[in-house]
Amino acid sequence: MRSSEMKISPLDVRGRWVLITGASSGIGAEYARDFARRGANLILVARRVDKLEALAQELKTARAVQIDVVTADLSDPEAPAALFAETRRLGRELYGLINNAGFAVYGPFHEGSIERNQQQILVNVYAPASLAQMVLPGMVARGSGFIVNVASTAAFQPVPYMANYGASKAFLLSMTEALWAEYRHSGVRILAVCPGATDTAFFDVAAAPEASVGPRDTPPNVVAATWRALAGNRSHVITGPVTNLLLAQAGRLLPRSFVASTAEKVMRPKSRRDLPKKNAV
Predict the structure, then answer these.
(1) Is the pTM for the entire model greater than 0.70?
(2) Most CB atoms within 10 A, among 105, 146, 148, 163?
(3) Which residues are known to be catalytic?
(4) What is the C-alpha to C-alpha distance for residues 216 and 16, in angstroms, rounded to an integer?
């Protein structure tokens, strides 16, 4: 372990600036509350300015921290660069980045909206990869900081009827683990957080109640697991009940076709569960 890692703790965020995407609700809002409680200054990013302003007011009332609100639609390819430029304009040196924004499209792949699937890839893949690359030079030069990429247990196996979502989270997990290895001696900590079903509006937005497999975890538990993993300088953490860990590892132990076909049965929309199957395996 190098001296820079020993001297600087990623757990001390007092007075430091942390950017959180998808901060208006769910896990993102819980990250904001927790980081504010720990004394971090925040840049809150989402599409809904009313929700961001309400959260910012709540946190500034309760905590003596500075908060910037920046609205951005990360499905716009130009949004990551514009967002980073805004942090520079505001004079905020980013100590932490939490790439939390993401969403899923549910249903038979051929029936989905091509535009919506493209937006999903931009938000879940392009935006976090771009923002990570933009903030890393400053962190590496300083020898401290962290990046948290919120992936999913969906990263560990194919997800029929949410094919692009599962693939996007697999990308995010793989990228994060690679960056962790690349920068593990730089003083910068890089972590993929992989929640299972969590008690947020995610499944309502995706209109996918069938996708909520197993008991739902809570956003505070996800955030607490994040801190423990950062403290241990881990590359990834699977949050929630132990069944999440077991399901995530199943893909490594069982034939891939079996895992995929089993996932299809679990994820199949209710409206299609009684339809006759053609060329069934």
Answers:
(1) yes
(2) 148
(3) 165
(4) 32
